[in-house]
Structures are given as structure tokens and as C-alpha cells.
Design brief:
Layout lengths: L1 H5 L2 H12 L5 E2 H8 L3 H14 L2 E10 L2 E10 L6 H24 L3 E7 L13 E6 L2 H15 L5 E4 L1 H9 L3 H8 L3 E5 L2 H4 L2
Parallel strand pairs: 5-6
Antiparallel strand pairs: 1-3, 2-3, 4-5, 4-7
Helix pairs in contact: 3-4, 5-6
Length: 198
């Protein structure tokens, strides 16, 4: 949807990344690697976004084997006049995709607990983005998530556990389970804790 609106896949990927991480500075090769886009396309779009005022250039002096070398970093210009509108637009587009993903997940198997965490709630470098407890067709879930990764242009990490495995790991105070349950998340289905607390 956004690609049709903005006319370029590379531009949409860059906009989404900078809007998701407005304080972070990126350099060209890092962006090409992270987004899986050709270096020339990234350079062209960065130049356009800089001219447009969406991005700022932050030059930094970095030393290499020969002495000093300038490396250009790009960072989101949060003072850009359309920044709030663009952020809202990308958020709404993502919400539409998330809603569709959740609906499809609910149709697969008998899910007793489903939570969106990680990238869906702004937690970076998180071990999982979708946490599922229940009996579900893992092949179908993998295929479904792969399809949504293409729509979001982003890897989605997910975890599936059976209810006995979840209960056991919870009883032994498993760190992964503790982190998922105690941190920011959006609970979509809860047939486990609602049973524990009638």
C-alpha cells in the first residue's frame, strides 16, 4: 500500500526505519545491508530525503588504518514539518497489517495465549515479536508470518509453545518467559491467566 503511495520500495523501507528509530544515526552501507536494498538505490533515496528535509546528515570522523576518514551518517529530522503526519501514516499502515495478521493467526489451531511484543510495541533487539501458547499448525504459522514479513519488509521473530511447556517454564521462572510476561506487550488472546484468575 505505502509503496504505491510513495512510488519506491527503497523509500518506504527507509522512511519506516527512520520513523521507527528517530534518534539513531545510520550510514549508507549499514542501511543497504539492513534493508536488503542495492547501495545505489539507498544513496539516491537518502539524497532525495535529505533534500526534502526529512533526514539530516551527521558527519563523524572515524579512524581507519590510514588515519582519519569521514563517514556520513543520516538521522531523522524530527523538526521536519510533516514528521508527525508521516509517523501517524506509517503507524496506521502497520496497524492495518497487524490487525490482519492477528485475525489470520486466530484462525490457525487452538491458541490459548497470543501476545504481540518486540517490534510491535517498540522494543528493539527483543528475542520475540509474537508469542503463542497452544496447539497450532507450525507450518501454516511459518508460512503466514513469512507472508507478513514481506508486507512489513521486516523480519518477524515468533515463539510457539505448547501449554505444558509454557506452564513448566513458568514454574521454573524461565528468564525468557519472565521477560515476555513482565515487559510491554499487547495481549490478544488469554485463556491461560483468565483461567488462573476467574
Amino acid at each position: 500500500m505505502l509503496e504505491q503511495l510513495f512510488g519506491s520500495r527503497a523509500r518506504v523501507l527507509l522512511l519506516r526505519l527512520f520513523l521507527d528509530y528517530p534518534e539513531k544515526a545510520f550510514y549508507v552501507r549499514e542501511l543497504a545491508r539492513t534493508l536488503g536494498v542495492q547501495l545505489n538505490s539507498i544513496r539516491r533515496e537518502l539524497e532525495n530525503l535529505e533534500i526534502f528535509g526529512f533526514l539530516k546528515v551527521v558527519p563523524t570522523a572515524e579512524k581507519d588504518g590510514d588515519g582519519e576518514m569521514q563517514k556520513k551518517y543520516y538521522v531523522m529530522n524530527t523538526d521536519f514539518i510533516l514528521y508527525p503526519e508521516l509517523r501517524a501514516l506509517f503507524l496506521k499502515a502497520r496497524l492495518l497489517i497487524e490487525k490482519d495478521l492477528v485475525k489470520k493467526l486466530q484462525e490457525i489451531g487452538r491458541i490459548q495465549f497470543l501476545a504481540l511484543t518486540g517490534m510491535f510495541v517498540g522494543l528493539t533487539e527483543w528475542p520475540t515479536d509474537i508469542f503463542i501458547v497452544g496447539s497450532a499448525n507450525r507450518r501454516k504459522i511459518r508460512s503466514l508470518i513469512h507472508r507478513f514479513e514481506k508486507e512489513l519488509h521486516q523480519q518477524i521473530n515468533y515463539t510457539i509453545m505448547t501449554k505444558p511447556e509454557f506452564k513448566y517454564r513458568r514454574e521454573i521462572t524461565d528468564r525468557f518467559i519472565f521477560n515476555v510476561l513482565e515487559n510491554k506487550k499487547i495481549v490478544i488472546i488469554d485463556k491461560i491467566f483468565s483461567q488462573d484468575n476467574p
